[in-house]
Amino acid sequence: QVRLVESGGGLVQAGDSLRLSCAASGRTFSNYAMGWFRQAPGKEREFVAAISKSGGSTRYADFVKGRFTISRDNAKNTVYLQMNSLKPEDTAVYFCAADRVVVTMTSSSWGQGTQVTVSS
User: Fold this and answer.
1) CA 83, CA 118: separation in Å to the nearest integer?
2) Tens digit of pLDDT for each residue in 50-82?
């Protein structure tokens, strides 16, 4: 399995921006599709965004379209989530995941998560 470490979370105000990073190691990064998920207190984990192995294809949850952008740098073994116009309801622990085919909730490689808190 690929090892994933997220960073970049923090406490921000509504309307602010954050960029999350997820550094991968242990396997060839470009062989993995990558994604971001989040879990708010008392709620189930949900899909946020995903990106293909080459970076040429992306998909987003409806609630982040136009605000969040997923990208990857295969030379740096890192996937990013640029989050703009943050809302209090974006408060959650954000996790990155990797999969050799398509990233889903059942993908086997996950990071430990990074906390994002958005105050109103």
Assistant:
1) 11
2) 999 999 999 999 999 899 999 999 999 999 999
